[in-house]
Specification:
Helix 4 (46-64) runs antiparallel to helix 5 (74-91), helix 5 (74-91) crosses helix 10 and helix 8 (107-133) crosses helix 9. Helix content is 76%, strand content 0%. The chain contains 11 helices and no strands. It comes from Vibrio zhugei.
């Protein structure tokens, strides 16, 4: 692995474990046992490192939430998207937990974030429409954007909400599982009988993870 990539993954690990605001470029260099000069050769400051991590996150986000083509079982699709929520929230938890502060201090990153969210919203509407076509959800075309926005809102702010509710909250897999259950609860009221059956199976699976 190239040093440039090592810096990114080391920073991601440290940000997730200690909180981004508590980690400096000195910490990252020490963790990798490289000189600070070597780190600055690849990234001029911590903000550039955060932008690089966001670029990786964005690619994975759009890839995971691009409507899947072809024939898939409904439960398989639901599991795919729910697992994607968990994977992204856990892998990039520092970003989810402190999103407003990170974006407010970097205009370039904020502009990139808005552009990615616009693409994501289009994809989410396509995913909701696919579930309607599969007769898992009953929702009108007019209501799809609102539903997509609500689902995105809960998923993207869940960790920040948990952190705000208690200064002692530590982001664990169990906290993310609760966020997944919250997402499921939003969809259940507009589910068809078949969709409700599938959602309840997913719900039971998530609950079993932290039983």
């Amino acid at each position: 692995m190239k040093t440039k990539d090592k810096i990114i993954f080391a920073a991601l690990e440290l940000f997730n474990e200690n909180g981004e605001r508590n980690v400096t470029t000195n910490h990252i260099a020490a963790h990798l046992e490289i000189s600070l000069g070597n780190l600055y050769y690849h990234y001029r400051n911590k903000q550039e490192i955060i932008r690089a991590i966001f670029s990786l996150y964005s690619e994975e986000l759009i890839d995971r939430f691009t409507p899947l083509q072809g024939t898939h079982e409904s439960l398989t699709l639901l599991k795919h998207y729910l697992n994607s929520i968990f994977t992204l929230m856990w892998k990039y938890r520092f970003f989810y937990a402190n999103l407003p502060e990170i974006l407010q201090r970097d205009d370039v990153l904020h502009a990139n974030y808005i552009a990615v969210q616009d693409r994501l919203q289009t994809n989410l509407i396509g995913i909701v429409r696919a579930f309607v076509d599969m007769e898992l959800l009953e929702i009108s075309d007019e209501a799809m954007p609102t539903m997509s926005t609500t689902l995105h809102l809960v998923a993207s702010t869940w960790l920040a909400y948990q952190s705000a509710m208690s200064l002692q909250t530590r982001i664990t897999e169990q906290v993310i599982h609760k966020g997944m259950l919250q997402v499921i609860s939003l969809v259940k009221p507009v589910a068809t009988p078949l969709g409700l059956e599938q959602l309840e199976l997913l719900e039971e699976g998530v609950q079993a993870m932290h039983a």
